[in-house]
Amino acid sequence: MIRLYWATFPKSKRRKCIFKISCSQYVYQITNKEGFYKGLMALKYRYYNCRGGFHISVDPIDGRKIMILSNFNVLTEDDISERFINPAKAS
User: How confident is the model at residue 37 (pLDDT cuts 50, 70, 90)?
Assistant: First the structure.
């Protein structure tokens, strides 16, 4: 199904993901590596967390950006899309 999604929708028409690794790529990798059930769990997590309601802030200890999701999970710069880390480069 993910390959069909990739073939049907060009990158320019896909939703922009908040995660560094796109949601479809992440689910595809997990499914291939760990199986269908784990892939479904990855899809569920990304579906509920890759949307609005997040807050970006700077960690006062190391100065790196963090993203607090609507479910209060915290993402570090390693997991956040580059367009949120360096907005000037994304333009």
Answer: very high
The partner residues of 80 in beta bridges, in order of sequence, read: 19
Q: What does the alpha-carbon distance between residue 74 and residue 66 come to, in Å, rounded to a whole number? A: 7
Of 14-18, 35-39, 69-73, 81-85, the poorest mean pLDDT is in: 14-18
In angstroms, rounded to a whole number, what is the distance separating the alpha carbons of residues 45 and 8? Answer: 23
CA distance 35 to 66: 30
Comparing C-alpha atoms, which of 51, 40, 44, 47 is closest to residue 18?
51
The kind and range of the H/E element at 44 are helix 36-49
Closest by alpha carbon to 90, among 34, 35, 41, 17? 17
Please, what is the Cα angle at 53 between 9 and 14, to 5 degrees? 5
